[in-house]
C-alpha cells in the first residue's frame, strides 16, 4: 500500500484525499489510499519480445542485455500481478532514453516518444494501458522533470560532443573494441551507421557523420580543438563529458555539477546537474514547461491514471506546482505524488543535527504556505509525497532500537 502525507491547517500529518473522474477505459481513478501498487522497471520485468532487446555499452555483461523486458511481456503478466492482490501498476518512465546505461528510463531523450525498446507491434504503451484497464488495474507513470539525458532533447537542443564511434581508448586502435555486440567501436550497434545521437538539432557536421562511416575511421576534425580523431587516448570528455558552460540556457541551467554539501543546499539541488547523464533542465523557462507539459498531457490522454514525479526536491516547489496544476487542469482529479528523500520534517530554517533546509523537505511540497516556519498557513498544494520521513523513523527504531528526531510522527 502506498502511503502519502500532507500537513493540514493544524500542522498535523494526514493523508490526502482527492476526487477523480472516470478514465479512458471506464476505470475510476479512485482514492489512491485504497490502492495496492506494484512498482516495476519495465525493461527488467518480463521479456515478451526478444527482437527489441538491446545491450547498453556501460557495464556490459555477456548474456544479460540491459533492455529485456517490454510492454508485450508486461501485458502477458497482468493476471499474475492482479492475482497477487495489486490494483495498480507503477511503471518507470516509458519515454525514449539515451545514455550508456539507460535501461531504467530516467535518462530522457525524447519525452514525446515511447522508447522503441519497450514496444512491439500491437503491444505498445497505449495497448498496455488499455489491457491493464480491461483487468481493472490502474496505471501510474513515473515522470522526470528535473533533467534530460546527456544527449539533449531530440529536435529541441543538442549537447556538444563527438560521435562515440570515433572514441579509441589509450593504447588501442580503431576497430579493436570487443564488447559483445559492440564490435569495432562503441557506436550504437543497432544503427546502420552506428550513430548514437540522431538529434536533428545537431550541427550539420555531426549529422553528416551520423549518416555515414559506421566504422568510425574517416578522419574527423574536432571543431572545438582542431585535433583529428580517431586518435587513441584523445580526451574522453569530448565523447562522454559535458561542458556545462556550453549548454543552451534556453533549455538548461549553467551552474555546473553537484558535489559535497550541494545535496543539502536548495540552490545547488535545483540548479546544478546531478550527474553527467542527468542534465538539469531550466524548468522555470516557458519553453521547457510547454515541452514537458505537452508530453505529459499526451500520456494522460492515453489513459494514465496517476503521475509519480522523480527527484522532487530538485525543483523549487512553486515552480514544480505549475506543472502539477497544469496536468490536473487537463485531467481533473489527477492524483500526483513524488519522491522526496529527505529525512525529517522540521519547521523554520536549518535544524541542529539535521541540516536539510525546510524548503526541500517533503511537507513543504504538500502545502502552499510561504512561511517555512508555519505549516499551518496556506492550503493543500494538490501534490502528495512518498512518506520517507515515516519510513526513516520506523527504520531507525528497528535498527537502532530507539526513535529519532521524528518522534512527533507518533504523537
From TrEMBL:
<dbReference type="InterPro" id="IPR017853">
    <property type="entry name" value="GH"/>
</dbReference>
<keyword id="KW-0732">Signal</keyword>
<dbReference type="Pfam" id="PF00128">
    <property type="entry name" value="Alpha-amylase"/>
</dbReference>
<dbReference type="InterPro" id="IPR006047">
    <property type="entry name" value="GH13_cat_dom"/>
</dbReference>
<dbReference type="GO" id="GO:0046872">
    <property type="term" value="F:metal ion binding"/>
</dbReference>
<dbReference type="GO" id="GO:0005975">
    <property type="term" value="P:carbohydrate metabolic process"/>
</dbReference>
<protein>
    <recommendedName>
        <fullName>Glycosyl hydrolase family 13 catalytic domain-containing protein</fullName>
    </recommendedName>
</protein>
<feature type="domain" description="Glycosyl hydrolase family 13 catalytic">
    <location>
        <begin position="39"/>
        <end position="402"/>
    </location>
</feature>
<keyword id="KW-0479">Metal-binding</keyword>
